[in-house]
Amino acid sequence: MKRMLFVILSATLLLAACGARTERTEPLKTSIAGVDLREHSQQGVLLPTILEQVERLIGDGRERSARLLASARSDEIREAIITHRGADPAITLMADMLDRLGAGRTTAGGWSAYIRHRVTTPEAYDDWEADVDAIGSLIRQGQWAKAADLLPLTTPKAPGADVLAIESARIAAVVLLAEGQAEEAALAVRGALPLTRSRPGDAPDLKLLLAECERRIPGADATGSWLQAAKLGADPMTIVDPHWLQRLMEARPSSCDYPVELTTEVELRLASALGPMSAKLPAKAVLLAWIGNLLLNRGHGDLGLLICSRAVDACPEEHAGILRLGQARAFAQMRHFGQAQAIVDAVMSSGGTTSAIAQDFARSLAMRRGEIKPLPDDQLVLPRPILGSFVLYAYADRALSLYAAGRTADAMRLMVDVREASRTTGDEMFYAQCLQAELAWSIKKGDGKGIDDIRRRIDEWETER
User: Fold this and answer.
1) Which of 3, 199, 349, 380 could join 103 in a cystine, given CB atoms 3.0 to 4.6 angstroms apart?
2) d(CA 69, CA 49)
3) For residue range 113-138, what is the model confidence (pLDDT) as tens digits?
4) Average pLDDT, consecutive stretches of 10 residues, N- to C-terminus, the chain (465 residues)
């Protein structure tokens, strides 16, 4: 299958209004700040798949970078494993990461066991995989009733049985819900829940799926399942899945508040990414801003802009400045620099800490537009304390502009400062990216000693566990 059923799980099917009263989303915007997203959609843009990105990193000897990337995209690597069903180094690494995220270790019932055993005994999985493929094909054709006829899926009694049973439950629930068989869908999910005792990382998704089923059962109460899912959502595997978070928001019963376990973790991560908040923001705004940030990190500028704009709309005007910078980042990612600049100018005029962050971003915008100007010395020193990854990205752009202007020594000094500061924000992938930039500059400069030193640093970092 080119696309697995798990993508459907996060699409409009499970986000549609039904049954119990839940949080409603405003009508979908098609134009933001004069940009018609129907004309500038990235749907036709082929972004590198998670498999291609992991393969490239492994090929470059950057295994730790590959693991960090995989750990931030658990929803995508799960799909890649089942879609490709190989045992090459990239799939093997992703299976290992999914086991570590889901169970804390590799187990006989996990993804790594499935991948290894399938190499030597593929026939043990032939029937299950054939049925999954057939269901996927029927769904793409809109033939949900025929897909339901292939249920239940029989999980192979072979290594990897636990994760395949969980996937079987997910697939069955999606198909049965589409056919209006919510009670049967809930039964399928409940049957898989005991497996999460050994794979707690899979519990948030199954609990949320159960809540989505219960919403559609007359007289049933989805509150308990939703709250359990939301509390578990601070799990490292789930908190970085934008599609799961969107589903959680759409399924929220109107009588429920977001639990503090989830909102506290999201607030911390968002502050680390964007910068400190000027006040306690509404949970809805914070969650939407975090989802938008995750989508932008994955290269989805148009979707990120939509979600970031919803975050701004959900926040009091006087405290929305830091969230508006998410909109500006999205516009810049889509190369609409004029709209990005207009937002940044408005935020800069507001004063305070957010204004300082906006000023740094404004200089990054100038660099991206090709406006390379001399920088005074006071703009070559990273401010302390570090206000978040957003500031670090801005200063990395500034280092790039210095390099483009021929000020290699200044560029290197600033990039080294940025690289070391990135460890205070926990942005390890950005640390590695800084090292790669330093290596490229040293190679171009012909600095043999510098090349050896940076390569040593890269090797030490990439082999560190």
Assistant:
1) 199
2) 12
3) 999 999 999 999 999 999 999 998 99
4) 40 36 40 40 60 91 89 89 85 93 84 92 93 92 94 93 95 94 96 94 95 94 96 91 94 93 91 77 94 91 91 89 88 87 87 77 73 58 66 78 76 82 76 83 78 85 76
3-class DSSP state of 36: strand
Count of positions (residues) in the chain: 465
In tens, the pLDDT along 274-325 reads 777 767 889 999 999 999 999 998 888 889 999 999 999 999 988 888 889 8
Cα–Cα distance, 408 to 415 (Å, whole number)? 10
Within a 10 A sphere around the Cβ of 6, how many other Cβ atoms? 18
- 429 token code pair: 């992938």
What predicted TM-score, i.e. pTM, was given to this entire model?
0.83
Q: Are 437 and 412 in contact (CB under 8 A)?
A: no
User: What is the Cα–Cα distance from 39 to 19, expressed in whole angstroms?
Assistant: 35
What is the three-state SS of 61-123?
A: CCHHHHHHHHHCCHHHHHHHHHHHCCCCHHHHHHHHHHHHHHHCCCCCCCHHHHHHHHHHCHH
Q: What pairs with residue 253 in β-bridges?
A: 22
Distances (CA, A) of 424 to 126, 203, 290, 420: 48, 31, 19, 8
Distances (CA, A) of 388 to 12, 104, 272, 406, 430: 34, 29, 5, 28, 12
- Quote the CA–CA distance of 307 and 434 in Å, as a whole number: 28
Which residue type, as a one-letter code, is found at position 45? V
> Which amino acid appears at position 444 of this protein?
K
Q: Which residues of 99-119 are buried (b: 16+ CB within 10 A; e: fewer)?
A: bbbbbeebbebbbbbbbbbbe
Contacts of 456 (CB under 8 A, 6+ apart): none
Structure tokens at 48: 């590198």
